[in-house]
Amino acid sequence: MKTDTSAVNIDRDKGDFHYEVDYGYDAGIGLDERVVNYISDVKQDPDWVREFRLKALQIFESKPLPTHWASKDLEAIDFSKIRYYLAQGQRSKRSWDEVPEDVKRTFERLGIPEQERKFLAGVEAQFDSEAVYSNIKKAVGEQGVIFVGSTDGLKEHPEIFRRWFGKVIPIGDNKFSALNSAVFSGGSFIYVPPGVKVKHPLQAYFRINAENFGQFERTLIICDEGSELTYMEGCTAPKFNTATLHSAVVELVAMPGAKLQYITVQNWSANVFNLVTKRGLAHEESEIKWIDCNIGSRLTMKYPGVVLKGRKSRGEVLSIALANNGQHQDTGAKMLHAADETTSNIISKSISIGTGRATYRGLVHVPKHLKNCKNNTECDALLINATSRTDTYPAITVRGTGNSVQHEASVSQVSSDQIFYMQQRGLSEAQAMSLSVNGFVNDLVRQFPMEYSVELKRLIELEMEGSVG
Amino acid sequence: MPELEIRNLRVAIGENEIIRDLSLSVGLGEMHAIMGPNGSGKSTLAKIIAGHPDYKVTSGEVFMDGENLFELEPDERARKGLFLAFQYPSEVPGVTIANFLRAAVQARLPEGEELEATDYYAKLYEKMDLLEIDRSFTSRAVNEGFSGGEKKRCEILQMAMLDPRYAVLDETDSGLDIDALKVVANGVNSLRGPNLGVLLITHYQRLLNYIVPDFVHVMVQGRIVRSGGKELALELEEKGYDWIRDHAEEPVAA
Known about the structure:
The complex is a heterodimer of chains A (469) and B (254).
Chain A: H1 5-12, E1 25-26, H2 33-43, H3 47-62, E2 86-87, H4 101-109, H5 112-119, E3 122-127, E4 130-136, H6 138-142, E5 146-149, H7 150-156, H8 158-164, H9 175-183, E6 188-192, E7 202-207, E8 214-215, E9 218-223, E10 228-236, E11 244-246, E12 249-254, E13 259-268, E14 272-282, E15 287-296, E16 299-302, E17 305-308, E18 314-323, E19 328-337, E20 343-352, E21 357-366, E22 374-383, E23 389-398, E24 404-413, H10 416-424, H11 429-445, H12 450-465
Parallel strand pairs in A: 3-7, 6-9, 7-10, 8-11, 9-12, 10-13, 11-14, 12-14, 13-15, 14-16, 14-17, 15-18, 16-19, 17-19, 18-20, 19-21, 20-22, 21-23, 22-24
Antiparallel strand pairs in A: 1-2, 3-4, 5-6
Helix pairs in contact in A: 2-3, 3-9, 7-8, 10-11, 11-12
Chain B: E1 3-13, E2 16-27, E3 31-35, H1 42-50, E4 56-64, E5 67-68, H2 74-79, E6 82-85, E7 92-96, H3 97-107, H4 117-130, E8 141-142, H5 148-162, E9 166-170, H6 178-191, E10 197-202, E11 215-220, E12 223-228, H7 231-239, H8 241-247
Parallel strand pairs in B: 3-10, 3-11, 6-9, 9-10
Antiparallel strand pairs in B: 1-2, 1-4, 4-5, 7-8, 11-12
């Protein structure tokens, strides 16, 4: 197989670079009360936040790892060897010119300022523990939209922040939500006022720079009545030999009639444990849609969910997972129906390459007293090599008689005849493979915003380059 | 003279020899038909020329304009001008014909050169008009849920777009009713010319009523037992393959 490796390698490891940075704030290695208090001191947390953190630390320490159902690989995380807080400064900047040069060049290399100019309504850029840049276009800010880091959010807008913070995902939801609650830093706080429809997406970019580091951003988004928002996040990290931990918590609240779309395209390096809790609370006639694309990482465990609390609310999870050699994508969705006439839709596509493993876990719950609820679940897996693996664990509980569910699953393989057919038309083996994979996800990717579908296709092509021949 | 030249080819699967010392030359601008009963090795020959990984050559060579094809990957052979119209074309789910062909045309451009979308679509529509294919056809996924006729039409459209020097058409008539057969034959005839050499593989003579070959070869049990002009096909139609078996230079077991 002939590929232009010189061009490809630079691109494939787009995020795999690392600049030395002077950190003014460092909580040291390991986790205990002292570390949590250090974070609270540095961030000048209000007392209720400090108490929240310390309580969360206790819950984290008391909870076992979920290895009775999840991968034993979780045991490879040594919590005592991770650095929990690293920052250069405490205030994010409103202009790229004010961002320190050593940090700014990272984001420039990742193309963030350029994307901001082209198609975004606002950007927040997080470097290790803190947001270094956050800015919103003037016109959007004038509509009353708030887009700041979580630290600024809890201080400047406590009346909104406190009402919802930790309510959609309680501290003790799982071991990693407890960990995040203890040491959270960074992430976005967004509030969209009633009736405001934000035309262009807001974007956050999460960058891990340091080795042996844990990133614990915390995002809270509230779309008030009848408002609309699309939020996108991207994430990268350089490749280190040691484990890096990313454990975020994202809480979404859609008030009656609101529409909230949350898009993730992660491209982690292969040493990252990505253990993220994401959930939305949907009030009457509102809609929450998660679009989740998981590429890279050593182990990802992520099951975006929607609690359908209000009548006629609607939840959707569209996800694509690509598990390459040595990687495990354990992803899925949760739909908790809690009102009449609620609908949910889950479409999951996974691709396993080499020794990669993709697991789908779905939880759909419709209790007995509800009427006219609907769920549709489709999960399709594509296996590239004979060593590739996929597992599906759908758990659908529907009680009562007035509800309907539909579940479809398929596993397919790219056949050697299909590849030969495409090669006979002049495509290299890698091009053929990548076109097949793009075809497999095509109907789903078509539902994504243009900029992200292009980026995703490119990422898939780069992943496929190294997988054959 | 430019040609696709098969020299003393032998192919075996396990103990079983499928192609036994076969030699044949297809000159540029010529239309050759290979006819033969089921199991004579015709389709194996097509796959070997294109480089299917499941078939191993025991000995012999295939040259395309003097270049040894066995030293090239299947996609390199294709980019150098070899086209195989498959007997059973594969589905490529989710990839439209337009996008698939675009990738194939792009693959033929020099490194770093981007295909102009407008030029591409102009050519695509021109070829579709030539082959009387509806415009909506190319927004369907390649061969997905296609009828037999649609699959073959899709093969001919790809051939038209990729401008091969040599095309091997493997049982292009199989599974077609007479109307579809005419459409496909018209397509092939419209591509015929001094810059295309064709090796047409068929079981039945009826295709040759619509695509008239310059040469006809009869293949039995892995070798060409008789070659002649277009009249050989008619003779074969009349007398059957048994007649050829009986008149083969060397007796072959029935």
